[in-house]
Amino acid sequence: MRILLVQPAPFECGRIGLENALWMSEPGALTAIAACVEDEHEVRIIDMRLEEADALPRVLSSFKPDLVGVTCMTTDAYQAQAVLHCAKSILGEQVFTLLGGHHPTLVPGEHDYEYIDAICIGEGEDTFTELVAHLAGGGDPKDLHAIDGLAFRSGDTQIQTSKRSQARELDTFPAPARHLLDAYKGQYFFASAMNMAAIQTSRGCAFDCNFCAIWEFYEKKVRFLSSKAIADRMEECEEPFIFFLDDNFLTRPKRLEELCDEIERRNIKKYWMIQGRTDFVVENPELMKRMRDCGLMMVLSGFETNDAGTLESLKKDNTRENNLKAAKLLNDLSIITTGIFMAHPDFEAQDFEDLYAAINEMKITIPLVVIHMPLPGTQSWRENKDRLLTEDARFFDLLHAVVPTKLPRREFYERYAAWNESTEASIDSSLSMRFMARRPRLMMAMRPGMKLFGERREVLRKALNDPENYLRDEDEIIGELPIAAQRASESAVRETEGVTA
Amino acid sequence: MSTILIEKEEPVTEAAETEMELSPWLAELRDEVAAHPGVNHLLLSRLRTGRYTKGDYRVFGLQHYPMVGTFTRYMELLLLRAPSSEQKLWLAKVLVDEYGEGSDGEDHASLYLKYLYSMGVEPGEEESTPLCTAVWEFIGNHLRICREEPFLVGLGALGPGHEWAIPKMFHKIIPGLERAGMSYEDRLYFDLHTEQDIDHANWMSEALEQLGQDDEARAQVRRGALLSLGARFRFWTGIERCVVARRQPHSVDAVRRGLLGRRRPDREESPGNRQELFQAIQDNWSGKDWPVRLPSDTELLEVSQ
Q1: Does A57 sit within 8 Å of B253, measured CB to CB?
Q2: A257, A327, A320: which is closest to A299 by C-alpha?
Q3: Who has greater pLDDT, B93 or B259?
Q4: Rounded to an integer, what distance in angstroms lies between the CA atom of residue A238 and that of residue A228?
Q5: What b/e string do you get for A172-206 counting C-beta neighbours within 10 Å, with b at 16 or more?
Q6: CA-to-CA distance for A444 and A449, rounded, in angstroms?
Q7: At B12, is the pLDDT very low, low, confident or very high (cuts 50, 70, 90)?
């Protein structure tokens, strides 16, 4: 079988978004499932974030795949649908179209269209392998009942097969087929760390923050790749930088000590970036130092807020003190801190000022202020469903307020859009000469990417700093009334008309 | 978000049963047209799957509108160069239809204006709106093809390149217009072109069957179709940029292209509005150069390679 796997572009060309400008990592989900079937089938991957718009129809016409698979999160959900629509449009009914990823898993009903043959629910490797075997063996593409972890149309309804178990040990999966991304080599990056590989060393998260759906996706289970397997994969990477895609890398100190042992024993010289919690940083300063010496260059953490009460309401199970201490510790170790903070829709003017002041006090190297939102599939979403002002997936990008704001929306966005300018002091004080002097080799390694990152950042800032951008996005889409209230009011009108009639 | 409207759609068949049977070379060309990136531009699928509003379609329409008034101009140019009366007759049949016969007295331009006004376009705005370079390029390319290329290349551009391509493209646009709240009456221009152009396509096919007697003639027809569709692809790309720029004038795409090593300015200057475009068409007729640099044939043909 010929299989085409597609990473969609997150937005229409030109649209505002953090991705593309700050961070673009390899499509790890696609290389992972490709690895499961590439021995027996011809597999290609196309990354639409790095392609011109004509690339997709060209590949579809020339490669003529039997199966097209697309992965997506929430903001790129319509783009993923467009890819599959385009595939059916060019290749007709003979192509099987499959959608997978975070958003379709959590809300499969939103992807019940005639141009999507099946949706992969949850972890993809085993489901994809069985599906490909079924189709390659001449199985009926409409009769998928025997394959766990799928949703598909049967008659007029969308049905789901039995839940796919997500208990398989990560070491038993084949290593991702990264060679399928050779055409894009050197184009993945985080800030000025150009030429970046990506490795996922664990799946799931043991915490249950109410704004995050990771733990729900993985049913609160966490599985880890062994240190030996991680080191093997690091050695296979030609790239100088590696991003560990784990949602929470900083867990189980013993595992990380073992990883450092492997890195030291094998003399692996890579710079690596992770996502992790500040409490772990504070509780394990020596381990952080050891990881720094083994190549750790950046920790991306959800600091979320400067307010203890808000941390509690988010079920973050962390403290403001930990955030402060972790920022200082990472700065002292010359590890770049990327801190994500949330502006809450019920912020008043002073709350914005306080947040920006707190960020500057913490000296975060790369501060990112996003807007708190109930993301589909999260506890927060279920609790706030009646307050949603839109159900348009594109708006769940952490840059728009999808519930009513306490301030008038214009003022809210004016104050929000000021975050870049208002947190300049944080960047300046973090990236001190002392910080850089302590890691001269890292600075040299990042140098080639600095000019391009500077350009990307400038354009992104122009977009992010303009409050009108957010308001124009909302035009005709976000009104004053929540969707639920609009529907209730429309339904009441209909009932009244019915009574009158 | 589980309450989002879930559509149950009919598969796109485009009234295939009414299409005439084609000889192998034309059938092959029809398949090539159907799979061409210009006919399957991602914008069209995005319109189909995304949540575009009337305001977005208004921008789309204001850029698309000039095409409506120029198709007859290409046909007229080609008519002048048709080598025989029989061929003139085929072209004339399509032209008469394009002038408005069969549309209750309303020509295509009036139907399109109805669509624009239903989206809140003020009378006159359709003339004064700056048009993006891609619109000027598309029209300039087709004027050139119909005037300078051999007759069969022109026929390929207007026949397979238009009449086969348009119903397929408009089928993708219509569900998005419906979703944005446009009634059948308001979007009649688009619906009409998914029906009426089947007839046009058949007339054209009949002509092509008779004229495409040898490999050279067939190659000319194919070349015309691919030149037109290459221009069409660039046109959709330009339109998409306009639609996105309405909400996001600072193009993050410029960054992306910077990444790809294919830099493009954050914004581009419009070569002019529709009035200026039609003046340029007149001037071009009188021998003046087209005011916008046109992409080379290689650039247009490589879209499908």
Answers
A1: no
A2: A327
A3: B93
A4: 18
A5: ebeebbbebbeebeebbbbbbbbbbbbbbbbbbbe
A6: 10
A7: very low
Q: List residues bridging with A120 in a β-sheet.
A: A150
The pTM of the whole model exceeds 0.90: yes
Burial code (b: 16+ CB inside 10 Å, e: under 16) for A335-358 equals bbbbbbbbbbbebeeebbeebbeb
Structure letter (DSSP) for residue A152: E
For an interface test with A, which of B13, B171, B247, B303 has the most A Cβ atoms less than 10 Å from its Cβ?
B247
* Cross-chain residue pair A57–B55, CB shorter than 8 Å: no
Q: Is the ipTM of this complex over 0.90?
A: no
From chain B residues 24-83, the ones with a CB under 8 A of any chain A CB are 34-37, 40-43, 45-46, 48-51, 53-55
Which of B12, B37, B259 has its CB closest to that of A57? B37
Q: What is the DSSP string of A441-500?
A: HHHHHHHHHHHHHHHHHHHHHHHHT-HHHHHHHHTTT--SS-HHHHHHHHHHHHHHHHHH
Phi, psi angle pair for B131, to nearest 5°: -100, 145
Please give the backbone phi and psi of residue A433, each rounded to the nearest 5 degrees, phi first. -60, -35
Is residue B262 scored above 60 in pLDDT?
no
Rounded-to-integer distance, Cα B234 and Cα B299, Å: 10
The count of C-alpha atoms lying within 13 angstroms of the C-alpha of B120, restricted to the half-sphere facing its C-beta, is 10
A481 CA to chain B: closest CA distance, Å? Answer: 16
Whole-number CA gyration radius for chain B: 19
CB-CB under 8 Å, A462 with B248: no
> Is A149 in contact with A122 (CB distance < 8 Å)?
yes
Secondary structure (3-state) at A250: coil
Instruction: Give residue A209's pLDDT band: very low, low, confident or very high (50, 70, 90).
Output: confident
Q: What share of chain B is helix, strand, coil (3-state, %, to 5)?
A: 70, 0, 30
Q: What percent of chain A has pLDDT over 70?
A: 98
The pLDDT of residue A276 is 96
Number of neighbours of residue A428 by Cβ within 10 angstroms: 12
Token code pair at residue B121: 């376009």
Residue A378: CB atoms within 10 Å: 20
| C-alpha distance from B184 to closest chain A C-alpha (Å) | 21
**What is the residue-averaged pLDDT of chain A?**
92
Question: Which two structure tokens, joined as six digits, stand for B44?
Answer: 């069209």
Minimal C-alpha gap between B249 and chain A (Å): 8
Q: Which residues are CB-contacts of A48 (< 8 A; sequence separation ≥ 6)?
A: A6, A7, A8, A9, A55, A56, A79, A83
CA A8 – CA A10 distance, rounded (Å): 6
Which residues make beta-bridge pairs with A296? A272
Q: What share of chain A is helix, strand, coil (3-state, %, to 5)?
A: 45, 15, 35
Tell me the chain B residues in contact with residue A25 when contact means C-beta distances shorter than 8 Å.
none
- CB within 8 Å of chain A, chain B residues 249-288: 249-256, 258-260, 262, 266
In chain B, residues with a C-beta closer than 8 Å to the C-beta of A191 are none
Best mutation site among A6, A7, A11, A13 for testing chain B: the one with the most B CBs within 10 Å?
Answer: A13
**A·B CB contacts under 8 A:** 169
Place of tokens 């890819």: A83
